[in-house]
Amino acid sequence: MIQALRQGTFQHEARREIDTKNLLQIGQITPGDLADIVKRCSGQHHERSPHHTVAGVDVHILRRDGWYVKFYFVDPDTVFISVHQ
Q1: How far apart are CA 41 and CA 14, in angstroms?
Q2: Most buried residue among 32, 33, 56, 67 by CB atoms closer than 10 A?
Q3: Closest to 25 (Cα-Cα) out of 8, 42, 44
Q4: pLDDT at 83
Q5: Mean pLDDT in residue range 52-69
Q6: CB 15 within 8 A of CB 81
């Protein structure tokens, strides 16, 4: 995921309330700044759950420094669902 942020090769899942739920997509946080937050995460900041509509896809949730980052991997892509405080 950090590599995708650095290279700009990530995607965003379409959803409502984009202006409050995905600050990465609207440019309120840069990919580099998000990568720095993610690098500070450990296992205690991570949880996993099944995707709400795509069977077999695990959604990852990171909570660190007041940030909530929700994403999943669909090879070869990283797809962000939510990035917000």
Answers
A1: 25
A2: 67
A3: 8
A4: 96
A5: 93
A6: yes
Token look-up 């202006």 returns 19
CB 39 within 8 A of CB 69: no
How many Å separate Cα 3 from the centre of its chain? 13
Residue 34 has pLDDT above 80, yes or no: yes
Under 8 Å between Cβ of 12 and 22: yes
The whole-angstrom separation of Cα 30 and Cα 16 is 21
Average the pLDDT over each of 1-5, 10-14, 19-23, 49-53 and give the range with the smallest value.
19-23
Residue type, 62: L
Tokens of 25: 């997509």
- State how far the alpha carbon of 23 is from the alpha carbons of 3, 36, 53, in Å: 19, 15, 22
Q: Write out the two tokens for 4.
A: 């995708």
Gap between the Cα atoms of 42 and 44, Å rounded: 5
